[in-house]
Amino acid sequence: MKSFASHFYRACACLGMLLLLGTASTLVYAQELPVEVGRERLQNFLENVNTLSAQFTQTMFSAEGDSQQSSSGELLLKRPNRFRWDYQLPFPQLVLADGENLWSVDPDLEQAVVRKLDDSLAASPAVLLSGGRDLEEVFTIELVKRDEGLLKVYLAPREAGSDFQALCLGFIDDRLVRLELVDNLDQVTRIDFSEVVLNPDLDDASFQYVPPEGMDVINQG
How does DSSP classify residue 37? Predict the structure, then answer.
């Protein structure tokens, strides 16, 4: 991962939406559920899950569906506006929000990029999961269906100019187990979660970052 954007936004145009929803439209509609089912599941998750820990595997696919690269690590999340995506393989990377700032850290390059958390990031997947804004201020619910044993809720950003076209959250009961994005090049980023723990005891120190001596810090305001 080169930066927060490259992992979450390299992650609708017709082809992109078909990749995410499935190539057989008849199957999609056969499994479609009322939008209210998805709205209720999302609201329950956002209202009842204050903290979360999980292992994750992230895989990127080309517009043609070919697997391009994979990475894995640990996610910690604490509402509001705190999260820690700690990439461990194949290279260490860190994407961290401390409640006020967003850090993207590349230890191998000894470089960290920091910027303020603001409304321009409200539609990003990480801020969606940890933020305090009403979901439907930022997204519209496009489709809800059952597929692969998951309840899948498909969202589209309301604001024009977003770096991605479509977002899917996959649930088993109240556990979020998958996150999928289609970017503006019709590439798909899929994040599968395992060892999910809801509402663990996480202190704020887990979401603080102090650059070590010698780290090149780029402040983007």
Answer: H
